[in-house]
Each structure stands twice: as C-alpha cells, then as structure tokens.
Write a structure and sequence with these properties.
alpha+beta, 5-stranded antiparallel β-sheet, about 425 residues
C-alpha cells in the first residue's frame, strides 16, 4: 500500500487509466456471464418440463389400466358358472373374452380370474398376436397366498401414494403391484423376462364379491413413453439424452440411454434394473426426485465424467388416479443443452480478446503531463488528438484537461457496453 501511495504521478496516472480501461470491461464481462447463467438455467428448465411430461403420460396411461381390470370383471360370461375352471376358449367363454381383451389392448400378458379360494377359473390362452401360450399350467396353481389375492380378500386397494397430489386420491377398487418379475409370465411366455405390473380387482354379482380378476401388464407400455420422449429430444438436438425411471427407493427401473448403448432398443439389463440404486450412490437429482420434488440443476455424471443439465420430478397421479411411487430423471450433456449458447459465449470472448489486444497495439497513445515524464498507455478515445502515421499523441497540460479526458474515456466505454 505504501508503495502505491509513494508512487510518482506517472504511475498513478497509468494505474488510474488502466482501471478506467479494465474495470468497465470486467463489469461488462460479469454482466454477460450473469446473463448467460440465466439462459443456461432456462435451458435446464426445459428438461424439467420433459420430466413432468413423461410423468404425466405415465399417470394417465396407468389410470386407464386401473379402470380396465374393473371393467373386465363386468363381462357377463363370468356369471355362467358352468364354464368355470374349464381350459381353452372352446370350453370356457371367459377365456374367449380374455383372449379378445389381450388382442385388443395389446398390453396384457395374462388375465387371470380366480375364485374366493384362489383356484383358477380362467386364464387367457393366447397372446396379443393370437398365438397360443403355455398358460394351461396355471390352472394347477392356487393364488390364495399371492400378494394381490390377500390384498383383495382384505379389502385393501391402492388409493394413494406418498406423493399423490390433492384430488388424485379418489380412485378405489383396484390393487396395484409395482414392477416385478412375474413368474407366471415367464411360464406362459418362453424367453420373456417377466417384467410386469399387476392390477387386480374384485368381481361382483348382485353386490357380492364372487371372484378376483388380475391383469399381468406388460411394462413396455411405460418404456414406450420413454422412447417417445427420447425421439423428441433427439429431434430437438439432444441425442445424448439419458432418461431414467426410479422406484420408491431410488432403484433404476427404466434405464434408457441410446447414445451409450449404441441402440434405440430398450435393453433389460437385469444386473441394473431394480438393483442399481442412485439414491444410495448419492446422485442428488435422484435423491430429490424420490423425495417428491420437482426441479432442475446441473450435475456431474460420475461414470461418464461429464456435466449434465438435468430435470427431475415425481409422479403425482392424474384424473383421480394416485399414480406410482416413481421418480423421473432427464439428463442431457451440458454441451447439448444449449449448443448455440456455447457458440455465442465463445464468439463473444474472442471478440473481447481481439478488441482488447488489438486496441493495445493499434491505439497506444502518448500522454504528456506538464512537469511529468511522458509515458505510453493503452487508451481507447482521444482528447486533442494529433494523428501520426503509427499512433496518436494526446497532450494534457492541466487538471481540467485530465478530468475532461477521463470523462470522455468513461463515456466511450459505456457507449461500447450499450451497443
């Protein structure tokens, strides 16, 4: 500090003019940085909206599945008890009706009807394409101890989830089973990994429960929502998008990352699905989503070693349906989140650097103060300028001239900032 106070007039003047030259540029740079930060945040909010849209589509789709199982139980074929327990559509009209449901809806592996003791009354004998499946063996089973059977027998229905939104807790009459590997599906469909959701409901006749109907639902109906969302992201310039669905604890149940997999096909990696827990891994957006939060942030992907713009949310239900206890993550590489922004930032920095250094070279002027040794300074405007072949010469002979000169410099810098 003492060195600055004791410095000569020339040094002080140099420092003053440098401050006038550099500080406004620093202020402008900070302002530009703040503006870009706001734009970056806006880009990330787009992926929050994508996550919300995915969650809403899942809710609305599963709302229909919640009602399907109740509607199926109204089929009049059920009330002809003479056909109960018989195999095949030829002998059992309930089976024929089930085959039609499977074909028309295209999302059900199995439709199972059991009596109040757990014995199988009927099960579909064909898949959605009309091909026979190995479902006859299910007639040998008793479902009295199945989770869905016990829930229905006790009058337990899925009416809300931990993060169900107000008004989406009015549906009742159906019991939902979360994603699981269904052994009955594996038995009936050779080579199928059995990833299914369960929707089960009582069947009534004259106000009394006479049976229980359970649909084993193909999880691909949820996965297709993710493939559609990725397709839209890819078209909008985000081919590196990574879409994830988490269960209530933070375990991955959909892991859709075409750029990493090198394919747009859904891959069921059973070493990851329902096993890899992102909450336990400390992934912040996963922690927030599982808590029921909605938002966006920039986060570092530990495995990929990149920063991603991320949006997240939790399912909250729709149309009175309580939704599933799942969280949605949408992650996009930072350089794809707003590629045009990165280009603008780079160009502006190049312009600023070019302007600064070229100005230093081309517009170095000589300032001469009466009684003070002449010195060379980088400045950007003129007061009483005398052009020379190489540079310009500015002569300051009294304090008023100096004040006027500094005022002109400040005005010039402000004008540059506003253009």
């Amino acid at each position: 500090m003492n060195k600055i106070l004791n410095a000569g007039v020339t040094v002080k003047l140099v420092s003053l003019l440098l401050a006038f030259a550099i500080l406004p540029m620093a202020v402008i740079s900070l302002s530009v940085y703040s503006s870009f930060k706001g734009i970056e945040d806006q880009a990330a909010t787009n992926f929050e909206e994508v996550a919300i849209t995915i969650a809403d589509k899942i809710d609305r789709n599963l709302f229909e599945r919640y009602g399907d199982v109740q509607a199926f139980g109204l089929n009049h074929a059920i009330f002809n008890r003479d056909s109960w327990y018989k195999k095949g559509a030829e002998e059992n009209p309930i089976v024929d009706a089930m085959n039609q449901y499977v074909n028309k809806y295209g999302i059900y592996f199995l439709t199972v009807l059991v009596d109040l003791e757990g014995k199988v009354i009927a099960v579909n004998s064909k898949d959605l394409a009309g091909k026979s499946i190995a479902s006859d063996n299910l007639y040998k089973k008793n479902y009295k101890n199945a989770l869905w059977f016990r829930a229905l027998a006790s009058g337990t229905y899925t009416t809300r989830m931990p993060h169900t939104a107000a008004g989406n807790d009015i549906s009742s009459g159906t019991y939902i089973e979360d994603l699981h590997i269904d052994n009955d599906v594996i038995t009936a469909y050779s080579g199928n990994d059995g990833l299914s959701l369960g929707f089960s409901s009582p069947v009534y006749q004259d106000g009394k429960v006479i049976a229980y109907w359970s649909n084993r639902t193909d999880f691909s109906l949820v996965e297709e929502i993710f493939t559609q969302a990725y397709s839209e992201l890819e078209k909008s310039g985000h081919p590196g998008a990574e879409l994830t669905l988490l269960d209530k604890d933070g375990r991955v149940i959909v892991d859709y990352d075409p750029a990493a997999e090198g394919s747009k096909d859904i891959v069921h990696n059973l070493g990851v699905l329902m096993k890899l827990n992102l909450v336990n891994k400390g992934v912040e957006i996963a922690v927030r989503a599982v808590k029921g939060e909605t938002g966006y942030m920039y986060s570092f992907h530990a495995r990929k070693k990149i920063t991603q713009a991320s949006g997240y949310t939790h399912l909250k239900g729709a149309l009175g349906f309580p939704g599933m206890n799942w969280g949605v993550l949408v992650r996009v590489p930072e350089d794809q989140a707003a590629p045009w922004l990165a280009a603008i930032q780079q160009n502006i920095m190049l312009i600023v650097l070019f302007f600064f250094f070229s100005s230093r070279r081309r517009h170095t002027r000589y300032i001469s103060v009466t009684g003070v040794q002449t010195c060379a300074l980088p400045i950007y405007s003129a007061l009483e300028v005398k052009d020379t072949e190489v540079d310009a010469e500015i002569r300051i002979t009294d304090p008023n001239q100096l004040k006027a000169f500094l005022g002109e410099e400040e005005k010039t810098l402000k004008d540059m900032a506003e253009k």
